[in-house]
């Protein structure tokens, strides 16, 4: 048995959240939660299956290959509620047999070649922040599982001030990337909730979208070049920012979740670091009115850098637990840029949002959102300790389908999470906007049953069915992984599946790259 320490939690112990009296009171009154659910202190690792002969060959191409329990446990799971509940129950079923820490792109390529020869499944590991089971490779038919941790690939390779691009190795974590760019007067502008721990390669592999996507764009739109190692050799894409030279091969790797290759280097667009910021809160009388307002900004402008709209339930719960006070629905509107640009856009936004039915709340709600925007995963740990299920899911759809999708998914979650005797809390916000549609991001809190993993899986399946039936996509920015694979298969159809299988066969003929992830 091995100590779980902090692998069944998010982040660092120093940043752990203690539930306030208001939150504890809400859990008791609304959900009937009074009994804590302490986590197990140890987990049992499955016996390693890689032979000494295979390990010796792996170490011959990459000396940093570990088989100790601590390394294996640290790479045993991502950060979905399913993952954390399994670890808290003392189960580390998906732990790899070994962990490699390559220091160069060539070492990655050599590892993949060796694993292909010996039929060793490979799980690329960036920040370990997957919430869709993206690190749980299938073991059947393989000699074992090797996690390839890219943390040592952490250099800023080149910064091009003229073209405003930066080339990074894929293991660079997001805070380090921002630190390196800030020293040169630039920013990437990509700040998802996983920002503190996720890697740039992980952002690319999952088509991540940051909280400031309205201003800076999704991560896949930022990527102008990629290099990847595959079992048959290196793939180098992106000779120019745009090209008509055949299909864009970058798109094979963006969102591929390690199934086609291991991203080792990427070139991204960068922006001058903002000189000024202005974040404000706005209230709208209803979610429908607020959605109309954010759609108007997305389609006709002015477009802020950050634009988020909470529904009535999320607004009320945030207010009841110490967050910003607002009637109806709260919107956070943030503008970044030069001082002149921020002043001009802020004034234009105030005029436009007032005309669209909004009421200004000043900068306090915007400042509070900025201060706490990376705290939700820590709060989830505390809620799990208290005996609650706490999880999120997201989708995206066209504007005309958004009301029906919102109602269908919310209804499915309400219906399927009432098994513990009390209705769940189902909260939602519009998190990313485009001229043609938007993303809906749902947060769920419910009392745990005796089988919380099965409880959440059933509810997630019902919500996923509702997403599919409404014509929305199964994921906007979390990726497919294992959790979304059945609905992704339906979404792309038989011809789409055949096309992806053809790519897989060409680049990974022995199927060692993240088997069981993404592809059916």
TrEMBL record:
SUPFAM superfamilies hit by this protein: FAD-binding/transporter-associated domain-like, FAD-linked oxidases, C-terminal domain
Binding-site list for FAD: 124-130, 206-209, 257-263
Superkingdom of origin: Bacteria
Domain FAD-binding PCMH-type residue range list: 92-273
Alphabetic keyword roster: FAD, Flavoprotein, Oxidoreductase
BP GO annotations: lipid biosynthetic process
Keyword Transcription: no
Family assignment from sequence similarity: Belongs to the FAD-binding oxidoreductase/transferase type 4 family.
PANTHER family: ALKYLDIHYDROXYACETONEPHOSPHATE SYNTHASE, PEROXISOMAL
Protein name: Alkyldihydroxyacetonephosphate synthase
Organism annotation: Actinoplanes regularis
């Amino acid at each position: 048995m091995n100590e779980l320490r902090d692998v069944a939690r998010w982040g660092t112990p120093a940043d752990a959240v203690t539930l306030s009296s208001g939150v504890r009171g809400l859990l008791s009154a609304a959900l009937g939660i009074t009994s804590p659910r302490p986590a197990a202190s140890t987990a049992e690792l499955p016996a390693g299956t890689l032979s000494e002969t295979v390990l010796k060959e792996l170490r011959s191409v990459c000396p940093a290959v570990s088989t100790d329990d601590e390394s294996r446990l640290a790479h045993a799971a991502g950060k979905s509620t399913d993952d954390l509940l399994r670890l808290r129950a003392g189960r580390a079923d998906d732990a790899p047999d070994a962990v490699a820490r390559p220091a160069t792109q060539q070492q990655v390529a050599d590892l993949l070649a060796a694993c292909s020869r010996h039929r060793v499944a490979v799980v690329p590991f960036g920040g370990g922040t997957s919430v869709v089971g993206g690190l749980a490779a299938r073991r059947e038919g393989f000699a074992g599982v090797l996690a390839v941790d890219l943390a040592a690939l952490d250099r800023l390779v080149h910064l091009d001030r003229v073209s405003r691009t930066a080339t990074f190795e894929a293991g660079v974590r997001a805070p380090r990337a921002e630190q390196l760019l800030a020293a040169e007067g630039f920013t990437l502008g990509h700040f998802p909730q996983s920002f503190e721990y996720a890697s740039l390669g992980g952002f690319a592999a999952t088509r991540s979208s940051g909280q400031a996507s309205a201003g800076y764009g999704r991560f896949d739109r930022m990527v102008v070049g990629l290099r990847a190692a595959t079992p048959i050799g290196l793939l180098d894409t992106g000779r120019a920012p745009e090209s008509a030279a055949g299909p864009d091969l970058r798109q094979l790797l963006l969102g591929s979740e390690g199934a086609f290759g291991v991203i080792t280097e990427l070139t991204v667009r960068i922006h001058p670091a903002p000189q000024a910021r202005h974040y404000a809160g706005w209230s709208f009388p209803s979610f429908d009115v607020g959605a109309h307002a954010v759609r108007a900004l997305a389609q006709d402008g002015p477009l802020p850098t950050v634009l988020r709209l909470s529904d009535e339930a999320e607004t009320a719960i945030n207010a009841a637990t110490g967050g910003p006070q607002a009637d109806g629905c709260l919107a956070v509107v943030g503008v970044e840029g030069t001082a002149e640009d921020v002043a001009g856009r802020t004034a234009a936004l105030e005029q436009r949002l007032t005309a669209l039915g909004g009421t200004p709340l000043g900068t306090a709600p915007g400042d509070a959102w900025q201060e706490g925007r990376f705290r939700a995963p820590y709060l989830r740990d505390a809620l799990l300790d208290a005996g609650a299920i706490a999880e999120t899911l997201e989708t995206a759809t066209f504007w005309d389908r958004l009301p029906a999708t919102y109602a269908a998914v919310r209804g499915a979650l309400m219906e399927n999470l009432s098994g513990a005797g009390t209705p769940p809390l189902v909260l939602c916000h519009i998190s990313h906007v485009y001229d043609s549609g938007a993303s809906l991001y749902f947060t769920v809190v419910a009392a745990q049953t005796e089988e919380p993993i099965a409880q959440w899986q059933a509810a997630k399946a019902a919500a996923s069915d509702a997403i599919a039936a409404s014509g929305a996509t199964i994921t906007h920015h979390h990726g497919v992984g294992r959790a979304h694979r059945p609905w992704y298969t339906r979404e792309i159809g038989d011809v789409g599946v055949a096309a992806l299988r053809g790519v897989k066969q060409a680049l990974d003929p022995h199927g060692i790259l993240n088997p069981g992830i993404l592809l059916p």
